[in-house]
Amino acid sequence: MDIISTPSLPRPLIGISGRRLRGAAIGAPHGFADAPLEAYLSEYSTSVLRAGGLPVHLPMDADPWQLVARLDGVVIVGGDDVDPRRYGQAPGPFTALIDPQRDDFEAGLIEAAIEDGVPLLGVCRGAQLLNVVRGGTLHGHLAHGEGESHGSYAYPRAHRVHEVRFAPGSVTHALYGETTRVNSFHHQAVDAPGEGIIVTGWAPDGVVEAIEIDGLPAVGVQWHPETFDADPVFDWLVEQAAVRATLDAVPATQNVA
């Protein structure tokens, strides 16, 4: 479905999370090297634009519930590890950087989206955090050289290194068919599913690659679809968000009449 060419549906507003860095990351001059910096990888926003949505970056200092109340859809992006303490474990020798502020902010976005039925897409870390917010757990480390060697950064980011098999009847099966090939840049993965979480995609080694929430417009994918020229999961998100935006606009239209 081409959202852009469908006049009956508005262009939905899609919020995209980011990460907090310091000015030194962009070569800021002395005195500003430690200034807080919001960083967003632009391939997420271009993917939303390509699918027909209007992307907006979400500052980490804002209230996530107030943000979601103004949005038609949400993307939780990839990044560093989810704090293992959020799922009953402790940081181990392979735990990467942990950002408690980001964990709190994005968890709030997820909770608000679920509460309000706002369409939600979690990418890589975003899929993992979606599961953790619902009470699930993660595999803390997938070793390089074992299985599909999921955490290797040896390939270009858009290179599809392994197959994913999807469960019949799932959203991801409807989008991709029985299988697709994906890239892979993660050393953590969903272990025990949280409340309402349904596992819908698996790598050849059994690692979870896709999840959904039963009865809600929420999908998590373990690969990075934003790196491809086009990935149908963004079309799904924008279509779901456009339908929601249309439904939200109906009462206002009726009141004017």
Write the layout of secondary structure elements.
Elements: E1 13-16, E2 19-22, E3 36-39, H1 42-51, E4 54-57, H2 64-69, E5 73-76, H3 100-116, E6 120-123, H4 125-133, E7 138-139, E8 162-166, H5 171-176, E9 179-182, E10 189-190, E11 197-202, E12 208-213, E13 218-221, H6 232-256
Parallel strand pairs: 1-4, 1-5, 5-6, 6-13
Antiparallel strand pairs: 2-3, 7-10, 8-9, 8-11, 11-12, 12-13
Q: Characteristics of this structure?
A:
two-stranded antiparallel ribbon; 6 helices; Gamma-glutamyl-gamma-aminobutyrate hydrolase family protein; 257 residues; globular; disordered N terminus; hydrolase
Explain what you see.
Keywords: Hydrolase. This is Gamma-glutamyl-gamma-aminobutyrate hydrolase family protein. With 257 residues, the chain is an alpha/beta fold. Helices cover 28% and strands 21% of the residues. It contains 6 helices and 13 strands. A 9-stranded mixed β-sheet has the order 4-1-5-6-13-12-11-8-9, with helices on both faces.
